[in-house]
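Input sequence (84 aa), recorded before submission:
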Amino acid sequence: MTKDTMKFCCEWTDTYGGEANYSWVRRGEFTAPANATRRMLLSRARRELGLDGLRLRVTGDYGDMIEARPSRMACVLFVTPVYA
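Predicted structure, token format:
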């Protein structure tokens, strides 16, 4: 990892009542440029978790975390930077 890249963590889990439930979870990590766009981060997270082709709607961008959900599925994707 170079100075111009960052490491990100992604989590794909189920929801219950609209909230993340974590009865099952798939986790992954990937690197991206430090100035990566939200679209690029979601694309790399989907690729890392094997969710290519799944359309997601961003439901929250909290500065250090992106939350995205597919339609008609009780699941949620979180993308967060890894600070270490």
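Checked by second reader. The radius of gyration is 13 Å.
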